[in-house]
UniProtKB/TrEMBL annotation:
<protein>
    <submittedName>
        <fullName>Prepilin-type N-terminal cleavage/methylation domain-containing protein</fullName>
    </submittedName>
</protein>
<feature type="transmembrane region" description="Helical">
    <location>
        <begin position="12"/>
        <end position="33"/>
    </location>
</feature>
<dbReference type="InterPro" id="IPR013783">
    <property type="entry name" value="Ig-like_fold"/>
</dbReference>
<keyword id="KW-1133">Transmembrane helix</keyword>
<dbReference type="InterPro" id="IPR045584">
    <property type="entry name" value="Pilin-like"/>
</dbReference>
<keyword id="KW-0812">Transmembrane</keyword>
<dbReference type="InterPro" id="IPR012902">
    <property type="entry name" value="N_methyl_site"/>
</dbReference>
<keyword id="KW-0472">Membrane</keyword>
<dbReference type="Pfam" id="PF07963">
    <property type="entry name" value="N_methyl"/>
</dbReference>
Amino acid sequence: MNRKGFTLIELAMVLVIIGLLAGIGITALGILVKRAKVNSTKEIVNADVEAVLGYTFSIGKIPDLSTFLTVVRNKKDSFGKDIVYIYDSGLTSYCGRLKTNITVYICSDAACTVPVQTIRNVAFIILSGSANYNNQTAGAGEITTPTVIKVYDYGIKVDDYSGDLNRVEPYDDIVKWVTLSELHNNEKCKPLYIDPNQNLPEAIEDAPYRAKIDVSGGVPPYQFGTWNGSSCDTTSLWNGYGLSLTTDGYITGTVNYDTDSNKGSITGCEGNITISNICVKDSLGDEITIADNLNIKVFPQQVKILTDTVPPAYEGSSYNITFFVSGGGDSYTWNIQGSLPPDLTFSNGQITGTVQSDSGCSTPSPYNFTLEASSCGMTAFKGYVLTVIDPDCNSSGGGSGGSGSCSSVTVFNAGDIRYYEKGTVFLFWCIASTRCTEFTSATVSNGECITVYRDFRCRRIESSYGFNTLVNYDTNNNCEVNYNNGRLSDR
């Protein structure tokens, strides 16, 4: 058999081919190993993010740098480099904030003059320098002032962090961040919030009112104020219509929506108080304003006939009494049931006329009637007894009641402590012209009236009388009458 070995040239070629194949295999193996480490590092970064979120949602704050090292399981990436943790220091107090100091730019070129995307209010960032072992993004630690952190497309030659390897090379950092809006998905991390659609309780005119503006999120205690266009001024608080806003969010006071109306009454039977520019600040300094107005619906008080009794009438004398009403609107529909003395008529809350006179002494029976006053869908009823007195039956022959010669009548308080306002008669009302004063005595002239109250602020009406009513009680014609806890008598 003829055997022939390799020539030197053939042997050299075989060795070259084997070397090339070995080189290709080693390179391919290196690529596969690098890819596996990159994927493993991505999983480490994702796991560390989830660990921080778990801590935040259970504690109600994000960890600081030292706490981060105890929270995460993997503190190094697959290349043996430390995992980088960047966070807003203000969020370690509480995660329910409205804004942070961290903004992320997504950049498609090294200059990043116009970011592809801007992510604001980032809570924290976790990153790895990846395969080139060079953190090209930012250093670990807390952010205390507004800071922009740039994240580049892979392959762009850049190095924004000189604290690691200070060299420009293709960007390959693995970066993941979490924003405040993601934290807010947890109840403990809700931001400061005022519901613009909340319904404040309805109010009654000339009645006490107290309501609370609802606020949630942030960190109590809250301070309310007035929004000045750029910030919440807690030294300026809304007030109006007899109400005021307290710094802790209560609206209190006595409603005075319609200042021109009778007490407890509202023109048009309904009103609306608008509260605008309300804002609130929490203990962390976050502040928010209500975009829309808050509204309080105002309704009148129940219609009430204030006049308790009617004075007696005298045969042959003129008679005039005005019935005072509160609540409802500015106008009332009147109705009367029962009987009045002959020649006396009732119209629009007044009884007027001259009682028929006869010769000799007569004792006419008392007249019973009920008045009905209606306004704004509400109705009040009150019954009265009107007694007619015949002067011919007066043995002393004195006293002419309403036909007397008094130009004014002095009313003396003979009962408990009371307060009064004096005024003038307008339509059916006594329009006050003096301040609320303790009632000892008061002089009322023709065309004037007096309203008596139970409280020193003159809000709880007890009785109201005009001049003609007072004259009718002055049976001895000395121009003086007594007032005793809602009842008149001659003096």
